[in-house]
Specification:
Distance between the termini: 25 Å
Keywords: Membrane, Transmembrane, Transmembrane helix
Mean pLDDT: 92
GO molecular function, one term: oxidoreductase activity, acting on paired donors, with oxidation of a pair of donors resulting in the reduction of molecular oxygen to two molecules of water
Number of helices: 17
Helix content: 55-70%
Strand content: under 5%
Number of domains: 1
Order of helices and strands: HHHHHHHHHHHHHHHHH
Radius of gyration: 20 Å
Region (Disordered): 1-23
Number of strands: 0
Organism: Sphingomonas jatrophae
Largest sheet: none
Structural class: mainly alpha
Transmembrane segments: 58-86, 106-125, 155-176, 225-247
Length: 360
């Protein structure tokens, strides 16, 4: 969910889509997926609220412990804080797909509890992530969340992760400095909206100004994040917030961003070079890491371990993706392309990506 600083030259062959989509669609796969989408579409507000609030509470409590403790105990608390807040923050993905009438107040609650405090309010993702799911945009130069990483230079992979480590500092600067300054300069404001208001990885992406309900959400969320960022800077500058506490908080949020960026590295195979793709081809370029492996519950929480399935069923809430996956596995034969997007784990996926960059 973080932005990289790779230049368009490094992106290589990504280009606007032309002609027919690459790859054909598998009719049986799409039929079973459509049935699952109908049957598993309803979110359970109780699960959403309990999961988000429990994750945020654990994360903030562990962050306080990391600040107050020392040595191994502080490091352990920091790890718990990073993973718990990462899970809480991952609900920003659900907010981009869910019908808000089915989860009344959840967007407001999430932004107050997680989005604004972590300087990643939902306007940074809403209106952006859905472009990644547009059939004619996926994998093209118009996709804000796609780079042909497997076709790029080997050094782009560590650079991709490094930029995430620096993201918390960039977000403080964006909201504490650029937001107030942009109110004084229409030209700067246009730049901030276009280039620094999206959690995207495609450096060529330029965001359009928001309209309607999103514009109203944007205003209050950006104002809240800006006030919070300015307050943090002032609290540290005046010594009210000890520098050690601030740096620990910065380290925890940096660790969150790095874990998410590593997850992003393996969310897709990143092998498309700019052509439009069929739905089945998009699915096969995406990744599931289903059970029985357990670690994806930590590094790909809130349904992100079923990222390929999510591209087939974007309207299905995270807590029902496991049941949808089991249905598709049962309903589709062994020769179905559905099984080709299921992978064993993180190390194998990272190794595949690195091998792709070495071949390039």
């Amino acid at each position: 969910m973080t932005s990289t600083t790779l230049s368009p030259r490094d992106v290589g062959a990504a280009a606007p889509a032309r002609g027919r989509p690459r790859g054909g669609d598998d009719a049986a796969l799409l039929r079973v997926a459509a049935e699952a989408a109908r049957d598993f579409a309803a979110p359970d507000p109780r699960i959403f609220w309990a999961d988000m609030l429990a994750s945020a509470t654990l994360g903030y409590a562990a962050l306080v412990a990391a600040i107050l403790l020392h040595g191994a105990a502080a490091w352990g608390a920091g790890v718990v804080a990073a993973l718990a807040l990462y899970r809480a923050g991952s609900f920003i993905h659900e907010l981009t797909h869910v019908k808000h009438a089915q989860l009344r107040g959840f967007r407001l609650g999430w932004n107050l509890a997680v989005g604004v405090p972590l300087l990643a309010p939902s306007f940074m993702y809403e209106g952006v992530h859905t472009l990644h799911h547009a059939r004619t945009r996926y994998g093209t130069i118009d996709d804000p969340e796609y780079l042909p990483l497997a076709r790029m230079k080997p050094w782009t992979v560590p650079l991709f992760v490094l930029t995430a480590a620096l993201a918390p500092i960039a977000l403080i600067f964006r909201f504490a400095v650029l937001t107030p300054l942009s109110l004084l300069s229409p030209r700067l404001r246009a730049t901030v909206v276009a280039r620094y208001s999206a959690l995207a990885i495609n450096p060529a992406f330029r965001r359009r100004p928001p309209e309607g309900a999103l514009a109203r959400q944007w205003r209050w969320q950006e104002a809240g994040a800006s006030l919070w960022a300015i307050a943090l800077v002032l609290l540290v500058a005046t010594g009210t917030l000890p520098l050690r506490a601030f740096l620990i908080g910065l380290g925890v949020t940096s660790a969150m961003m790095v874990v998410n960026q590593i997850r992003t590295l393996v969310a897709h195979l990143w092998e498309n070079e700019g052509e439009a793709m069929s739905v089945t081809a998009q699915y096969l370029d995406s990744v599931n890491v289903p059970p029985p492996t357990l670690l994806p519950a930590l590094w790909a929480p809130v349904g992100l371990r079923y990222h390929a399935l999510h591209h087939l069923l974007p309207s299905v809430p995270y807590h029902r993706l496991g049941a949808a996956h089991r249905r598709l596995v049962t309903a589709l034969g062994a020769d179905s392309p559905y099984h080709a997007a299921n992978h064993p784990g993180l190390p194998q996926l990272v190794a595949r990506l690195v091998r792709g960059t070495l071949r390039g």
